[in-house]
Amino acid sequence: MVTVLGSTGSIGVSTLDVIARHPDRFGVFALAANSSVAALLAQCLAFQPRYAVMMDEAAAETLRARLPADCGTRVLQGASGLSQVVTAAEVDTVMAAIVGAAGLPSALAAAEAGKTVLLANKESLVMGGHLLMQAVRSSGARLLPIDSEHNAIFQCMPVDPGSSVPSLAGVSKVLLTASGGPFRQWSHARMEAATPDQACAHPNWSMGRKISVDSASLMNKGLELIEACWIFDLAQDQIEVVVHPQSIIHSMVQYLDGSVLAQMGNPDMRTPIAYGLGWPERLVSGVAPLDLIATARLDFEAPDEGRFPCLRLAREAAAAGGTAMAICNAANEVAVSAFLDERIRFTSIPRVIEQTLELMPVLEPSSLAVVESADAEARLIAAQQVATLACSVRKTGLA
Ligand code: NAD
Ligand code: MG
After folding, report:
1. pLDDT for 228-244, tens place per residue?
2. CA dihedral defined by 34, 38, 40, 42, rounded to 10 degrees?
3. Which ligand has the shortest distance to the CA of 272?
4. Does the C-beta of 31 come closer than 6 Å to ligand 1?
5. Residue 371 CB–ligand 1 contact under 6 Å
6. Are residues 21 and 110 in the same domain?
7. Rounded distance between C-alpha atoms, residue 256 and residue 86, angstroms
8. Phi and psi dihedrals of 119, rounded to 5?
9. Is residue 190 part of a domain?
10. What is the pLDDT of residues 63-88, one digit of tens each?
11. Is the CB of residue 190 less than 8 Å from the CB of residue 307?
12. Is 281 inside a domain boundary?
């Protein structure tokens, strides 16, 4: 049975779409979301899970009141509810699709409980990669990457079905593709005036707002670089970021003999989700077959770290190691949220991250408590940077 964390989000909805195509194969044990009662209620009625979890207590109360009396779904709330529905004995697969650092404790609990973890929540690996990978190894859990690039790399790697981590035999390099986002061809001056809606208008993918802004700033690729290092046990210099604006190739693996294997398909997350749900079998996903004639061309270019400093900042955080990645991730979450609320400019996002990284010590991420405290402190410092920037924006009249 499957537990879907973040079921009302973009990945959650796509996961349930794939599950609904295979009623004989999958049962839904639990659905979990933050506070969107109406969306979770509709999903409960359609999928009849044993449990529904709302992080927000008042939302849990409302959901309880709205569920029809004859519905067998029990409503739980908060972190303890999440932990209960990922560790239950009946659950074999957990889709970890909560957005942001909030997804780490539940992803970690699923890994510690030895589940098959379908990992969409890249922030949990960026923050606590060391802890998460250690939990996977010691419990014998299986981590299957859902992020399209990592899923593509996984598909192109020489996987040993008996092992919980992919093999690197004969691999010389990983080519991590990036669409370049909606601002790929924008000047810095134009990006200074970018609005949240412009940043969220991704040319190829339809996603939640946080990851859409990350794609526009290329922080998404920075987070994915760190994610790939953890999942595939790679050093940073074994990964090359390649901008590929069509998003048809989802990433590539280069071998010692000169072969390069690519995974291609239409940009629709139901493909990697179906791959994760069915692995090692292939399942129907609802994704239209790729039309190569209509696609016509595949372009490639180098990323511009001058216009997109977030990629450089993520690289630097990865090189610094320890809690630097958690600090970088937390500062980014605070800055992105401030940008989405129109408190700072798009181009201020990397400033907030850089200043937060400069102001914080880097520690060994020896426990979840250390990582969570670095995350909390970074949020406070980043919020101060945001307040200063927002204040200067008001004074100078630069909206
Ligand atoms: P989204 O904003 O559409 O959905 C987020 C989900 O998480 C919602 O169900 C929300 O209720 C839930 N949530 C938010 N805060 C929570 C909290 N504190 N506790 C419990 N639940 C909470 O996000 P999304 O685009 O679906 O992305 C989810 C994750 O998957 C992110 O980590 C993202 O980076 C990753 N991802 C997304 C895509 C995509 O195409 N959308 C692709 C690759 C990776
Ligand atoms: Mg991705």
Report:
1. 999 999 999 999 999 99
2. -170
3. 1
4. no
5. no
6. yes
7. 40
8. -100, 105
9. no
10. 999 999 898 999 999 999 999 999 99
11. no
12. yes
